[in-house]
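Notebook p. 47: complex prediction with magnesium ion.
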Amino acid sequence: MTKVIAVANQKGGVGKTTTAINLGAALAEKDQRVLIIDFDPQGNASTGLGIDKEDREITTYDVLVDDMSADSAILKTNTPNLWLLPATGDLSSADVDMTEEPHRLLRLKLGLERDDFSNANYDVIFIDCPPSLSVLTLNAFAAADSVLVPLQAEFFALEGLTQLILTVRQIRENLNPTLHISSVVLTMMDSRNRLSAQVEADAREHLGDLVFQTIIPRNVRLSEAPSFGIPAIEYDTNSRGAEAYRALAGEFLEKLG
Ligand code: ATP
Ligand code: MG
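Predicted complex, C-alpha coordinates below:
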Protein backbone atom coordinates (compact mmCIF):
# COMPACT_ATOMS: atom_id res chain seq x y z
CA MET A 1 0.00 0.00 0.00
CA THR A 2 1.40 3.34 -1.07
CA LYS A 3 1.70 5.95 1.69
CA VAL A 4 1.13 9.48 0.45
CA ILE A 5 2.69 12.05 2.75
CA ALA A 6 2.48 15.82 2.43
CA VAL A 7 5.65 17.51 3.70
CA ALA A 8 4.22 20.80 4.86
CA ASN A 9 4.75 23.89 6.95
CA GLN A 10 3.52 27.27 5.80
CA LYS A 11 6.66 28.81 7.21
CA GLY A 12 9.38 29.22 4.59
CA GLY A 13 12.83 27.72 4.75
CA VAL A 14 12.22 25.22 7.56
CA GLY A 15 13.61 22.18 5.74
CA LYS A 16 10.61 20.79 3.83
CA THR A 17 12.46 20.24 0.57
CA THR A 18 15.67 19.06 2.26
CA THR A 19 13.61 16.54 4.21
CA ALA A 20 11.60 15.34 1.19
CA ILE A 21 14.79 14.80 -0.82
CA ASN A 22 16.99 13.27 1.87
CA LEU A 23 14.41 11.23 3.73
CA GLY A 24 13.26 10.09 0.30
CA ALA A 25 16.80 9.16 -0.74
CA ALA A 26 17.48 7.43 2.58
CA LEU A 27 14.31 5.36 2.18
CA ALA A 28 15.29 4.58 -1.42
CA GLU A 29 18.63 3.34 -0.09
CA LYS A 30 16.61 0.98 2.12
CA ASP A 31 14.94 -0.48 -0.99
CA GLN A 32 11.74 1.55 -0.75
CA ARG A 33 10.33 2.84 -4.04
CA VAL A 34 9.94 6.56 -3.48
CA LEU A 35 8.28 9.28 -5.55
CA ILE A 36 8.75 12.95 -4.75
CA ILE A 37 6.09 15.26 -6.11
CA ASP A 38 7.47 18.76 -6.47
CA PHE A 39 4.48 20.86 -5.51
CA ASP A 40 6.24 24.19 -5.15
CA PRO A 41 6.55 26.71 -8.03
CA GLN A 42 10.12 27.35 -6.78
CA GLY A 43 10.93 23.89 -8.13
CA ASN A 44 13.59 23.32 -5.46
CA ALA A 45 13.01 19.59 -5.19
CA SER A 46 13.40 19.26 -8.97
CA THR A 47 16.62 21.29 -9.00
CA GLY A 48 17.93 19.52 -5.91
CA LEU A 49 17.45 16.18 -7.65
CA GLY A 50 19.39 17.35 -10.68
CA ILE A 51 16.51 17.77 -13.12
CA ASP A 52 17.25 20.82 -15.32
CA LYS A 53 14.40 23.16 -16.24
CA GLU A 54 14.65 22.14 -19.92
CA ASP A 55 14.06 18.52 -18.97
CA ARG A 56 10.84 19.22 -17.06
CA GLU A 57 8.58 18.64 -20.06
CA ILE A 58 5.44 17.54 -18.29
CA THR A 59 5.02 18.91 -14.78
CA THR A 60 2.71 18.95 -11.78
CA TYR A 61 0.98 21.94 -13.40
CA ASP A 62 -0.06 19.74 -16.35
CA VAL A 63 -1.34 17.03 -14.03
CA LEU A 64 -3.34 19.56 -12.01
CA VAL A 65 -4.70 21.80 -14.74
CA ASP A 66 -4.51 19.90 -18.05
CA ASP A 67 -5.55 16.40 -16.99
CA MET A 68 -2.21 14.91 -17.96
CA SER A 69 -1.41 11.53 -16.46
CA ALA A 70 1.03 11.54 -13.56
CA ASP A 71 2.86 8.61 -15.13
CA SER A 72 3.71 10.64 -18.21
CA ALA A 73 5.26 13.38 -16.07
CA ILE A 74 7.38 11.26 -13.74
CA LEU A 75 11.12 11.16 -14.27
CA LYS A 76 13.70 8.74 -12.94
CA THR A 77 16.37 10.49 -10.89
CA ASN A 78 20.03 9.45 -10.73
CA THR A 79 19.29 7.85 -7.37
CA PRO A 80 18.07 4.25 -7.66
CA ASN A 81 14.48 3.77 -6.42
CA LEU A 82 13.81 7.53 -6.46
CA TRP A 83 11.44 9.18 -8.92
CA LEU A 84 10.33 12.79 -9.36
CA LEU A 85 7.24 14.52 -10.62
CA PRO A 86 8.85 17.88 -11.46
CA ALA A 87 7.58 21.43 -11.13
CA THR A 88 8.30 24.71 -12.84
CA GLY A 89 7.32 28.30 -12.13
CA ASP A 90 4.05 28.00 -14.04
CA LEU A 91 2.70 26.07 -11.05
CA SER A 92 2.23 29.47 -9.38
CA SER A 93 -0.67 30.20 -11.75
CA ALA A 94 -2.36 26.83 -11.22
CA ASP A 95 -4.52 28.40 -8.53
CA VAL A 96 -6.02 30.93 -10.95
CA ASP A 97 -6.11 28.51 -13.89
CA MET A 98 -8.18 26.04 -11.86
CA THR A 99 -10.95 28.49 -10.91
CA GLU A 100 -13.28 27.02 -13.55
CA GLU A 101 -12.74 23.48 -12.32
CA PRO A 102 -15.54 21.95 -10.25
CA HIS A 103 -13.24 20.12 -7.83
CA ARG A 104 -10.52 22.67 -7.30
CA LEU A 105 -9.11 21.13 -4.16
CA LEU A 106 -9.23 17.58 -5.49
CA ARG A 107 -7.20 18.14 -8.63
CA LEU A 108 -4.04 16.45 -7.35
CA LYS A 109 -5.97 13.54 -5.86
CA LEU A 110 -7.81 13.03 -9.14
CA GLY A 111 -4.51 13.33 -11.00
CA LEU A 112 -2.96 10.59 -8.89
CA GLU A 113 -5.96 8.35 -9.48
CA ARG A 114 -5.88 8.87 -13.24
CA ASP A 115 -4.67 6.05 -15.53
CA ASP A 116 -4.27 3.49 -12.79
CA PHE A 117 -1.45 5.51 -11.32
CA SER A 118 -2.15 3.86 -7.97
CA ASN A 119 -0.78 0.67 -9.51
CA ALA A 120 2.62 2.24 -9.98
CA ASN A 121 3.88 0.46 -6.89
CA TYR A 122 5.51 3.26 -5.00
CA ASP A 123 5.96 2.54 -1.32
CA VAL A 124 6.09 6.18 -0.32
CA ILE A 125 5.08 9.39 -2.10
CA PHE A 126 6.27 12.69 -0.60
CA ILE A 127 4.52 15.87 -1.71
CA ASP A 128 6.93 18.77 -1.23
CA CYS A 129 4.54 21.65 -0.42
CA PRO A 130 5.13 25.37 -0.92
CA PRO A 131 5.49 27.66 2.10
CA SER A 132 1.82 28.64 2.36
CA LEU A 133 -1.58 27.21 3.11
CA SER A 134 -2.64 27.95 -0.45
CA VAL A 135 -4.83 25.99 -2.87
CA LEU A 136 -1.72 23.96 -3.72
CA THR A 137 -1.15 22.86 -0.14
CA LEU A 138 -4.87 22.15 0.27
CA ASN A 139 -4.68 19.91 -2.81
CA ALA A 140 -1.76 18.10 -1.19
CA PHE A 141 -3.78 17.64 2.01
CA ALA A 142 -6.75 16.33 0.07
CA ALA A 143 -4.55 13.76 -1.70
CA ALA A 144 -2.41 12.67 1.26
CA ASP A 145 -2.79 10.00 3.92
CA SER A 146 -0.89 12.12 6.42
CA VAL A 147 1.23 15.21 6.95
CA LEU A 148 4.88 15.35 7.99
CA VAL A 149 5.85 18.70 9.47
CA PRO A 150 9.47 19.88 9.54
CA LEU A 151 9.93 22.25 12.46
CA GLN A 152 12.92 24.53 12.55
CA ALA A 153 14.50 25.25 15.90
CA GLU A 154 13.63 28.91 16.28
CA PHE A 155 11.54 31.09 18.53
CA PHE A 156 8.18 31.14 16.74
CA ALA A 157 8.38 27.55 15.49
CA LEU A 158 5.40 26.23 17.45
CA GLU A 159 3.17 29.27 16.84
CA GLY A 160 2.70 28.48 13.16
CA LEU A 161 1.67 24.95 13.99
CA THR A 162 -1.69 26.06 15.38
CA GLN A 163 -2.83 27.33 12.00
CA LEU A 164 -1.49 24.22 10.30
CA ILE A 165 -3.38 21.95 12.72
CA LEU A 166 -6.62 23.91 12.11
CA THR A 167 -6.19 23.62 8.34
CA VAL A 168 -5.60 19.87 8.57
CA ARG A 169 -8.77 19.61 10.67
CA GLN A 170 -10.80 21.55 8.09
CA ILE A 171 -9.63 19.31 5.26
CA ARG A 172 -10.37 16.25 7.38
CA GLU A 173 -13.93 17.45 8.02
CA ASN A 174 -14.63 18.41 4.42
CA LEU A 175 -12.56 16.37 2.01
CA ASN A 176 -10.32 13.73 3.48
CA PRO A 177 -11.71 12.06 6.63
CA THR A 178 -8.53 10.18 7.58
CA LEU A 179 -6.01 12.99 7.13
CA HIS A 180 -3.83 13.59 10.18
CA ILE A 181 -0.45 14.96 11.16
CA SER A 182 1.59 11.79 11.51
CA SER A 183 4.90 13.28 12.51
CA VAL A 184 7.04 16.29 13.23
CA VAL A 185 10.77 16.39 12.56
CA LEU A 186 13.04 18.92 14.23
CA THR A 187 15.40 20.42 11.67
CA MET A 188 18.48 22.63 11.68
CA MET A 189 19.08 21.90 15.34
CA ASP A 190 22.21 23.08 17.04
CA SER A 191 22.73 21.17 20.25
CA ARG A 192 24.99 23.89 21.70
CA ASN A 193 22.26 26.46 21.23
CA ARG A 194 19.92 26.95 24.17
CA LEU A 195 17.04 27.98 21.90
CA SER A 196 17.26 24.68 20.00
CA ALA A 197 17.06 22.77 23.27
CA GLN A 198 14.06 24.86 24.35
CA VAL A 199 12.20 24.31 21.06
CA GLU A 200 12.86 20.59 21.34
CA ALA A 201 11.61 20.46 24.92
CA ASP A 202 8.45 22.45 24.03
CA ALA A 203 7.75 20.33 20.97
CA ARG A 204 8.13 17.08 22.89
CA GLU A 205 5.97 18.37 25.72
CA HIS A 206 3.10 19.56 23.49
CA LEU A 207 3.30 17.09 20.62
CA GLY A 208 4.57 13.99 22.40
CA ASP A 209 5.02 10.93 20.22
CA LEU A 210 4.38 12.90 17.05
CA VAL A 211 7.93 14.20 17.28
CA PHE A 212 10.58 11.91 15.82
CA GLN A 213 13.35 11.00 18.26
CA THR A 214 15.82 11.63 15.45
CA ILE A 215 16.87 15.25 15.19
CA ILE A 216 18.30 16.78 12.03
CA PRO A 217 21.34 18.89 12.94
CA ARG A 218 22.40 22.02 11.16
CA ASN A 219 24.94 20.66 8.70
CA VAL A 220 26.52 22.52 5.82
CA ARG A 221 26.60 19.42 3.59
CA LEU A 222 22.80 19.42 3.55
CA SER A 223 22.79 22.95 2.18
CA GLU A 224 25.58 22.34 -0.35
CA ALA A 225 24.18 19.18 -1.94
CA PRO A 226 21.30 20.78 -3.93
CA SER A 227 23.72 22.81 -6.06
CA PHE A 228 25.21 19.51 -7.21
CA GLY A 229 21.77 18.11 -7.96
CA ILE A 230 22.10 15.09 -5.68
CA PRO A 231 20.78 14.22 -2.24
CA ALA A 232 23.19 14.97 0.61
CA ILE A 233 23.17 11.33 1.54
CA GLU A 234 25.03 10.72 -1.73
CA TYR A 235 26.97 13.98 -1.92
CA ASP A 236 28.70 13.32 1.41
CA THR A 237 27.49 9.95 2.49
CA ASN A 238 29.13 10.00 5.93
CA SER A 239 28.23 13.57 6.86
CA ARG A 240 26.23 14.20 10.02
CA GLY A 241 23.31 15.38 7.92
CA ALA A 242 23.33 12.20 5.84
CA GLU A 243 23.54 10.01 8.92
CA ALA A 244 20.67 11.89 10.54
CA TYR A 245 18.38 11.39 7.55
CA ARG A 246 19.32 7.69 7.48
CA ALA A 247 18.38 7.39 11.14
CA LEU A 248 15.14 9.26 10.40
CA ALA A 249 14.36 6.80 7.60
CA GLY A 250 14.84 3.91 10.02
CA GLU A 251 12.50 5.49 12.54
CA PHE A 252 10.03 6.36 9.78
CA LEU A 253 9.82 2.73 8.65
CA GLU A 254 9.46 1.54 12.23
CA LYS A 255 6.56 3.95 12.72
CA LEU A 256 4.89 2.71 9.54
CA GLY A 257 5.21 -0.78 10.96
P1 ATP B 1 10.67 26.76 1.26
O1 ATP B 1 9.66 27.11 2.28
O2 ATP B 1 11.27 27.94 0.58
O3 ATP B 1 10.19 25.71 0.32
P2 ATP B 1 11.90 24.66 2.73
O4 ATP B 1 11.03 24.60 3.93
O5 ATP B 1 11.69 23.67 1.67
O6 ATP B 1 11.89 26.12 2.10
P3 ATP B 1 14.66 24.02 2.54
O7 ATP B 1 14.74 24.56 1.16
O8 ATP B 1 14.73 22.56 2.70
O9 ATP B 1 13.39 24.58 3.28
O10 ATP B 1 15.79 24.65 3.47
C1 ATP B 1 15.98 26.05 3.52
C2 ATP B 1 17.49 26.34 3.43
O11 ATP B 1 18.15 25.79 4.54
C3 ATP B 1 18.12 25.72 2.21
O12 ATP B 1 19.15 26.56 1.76
C4 ATP B 1 18.69 24.41 2.73
O13 ATP B 1 19.79 23.98 1.97
C5 ATP B 1 19.08 24.80 4.13
N1 ATP B 1 18.97 23.68 5.07
C6 ATP B 1 17.90 22.87 5.27
N2 ATP B 1 18.12 21.99 6.25
C7 ATP B 1 19.37 22.24 6.72
C8 ATP B 1 20.18 21.69 7.75
N3 ATP B 1 19.75 20.69 8.52
N4 ATP B 1 21.41 22.21 7.94
C9 ATP B 1 21.86 23.24 7.18
N5 ATP B 1 21.15 23.81 6.20
C10 ATP B 1 19.91 23.33 5.96
MG1 MG C 1 10.90 23.92 -0.26
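Notes: DSSP finds twelve helices and seven strands in the chain. The two ends are 12 Å apart (CA to CA).
Next step: compare against the earlier run before touching the bench.
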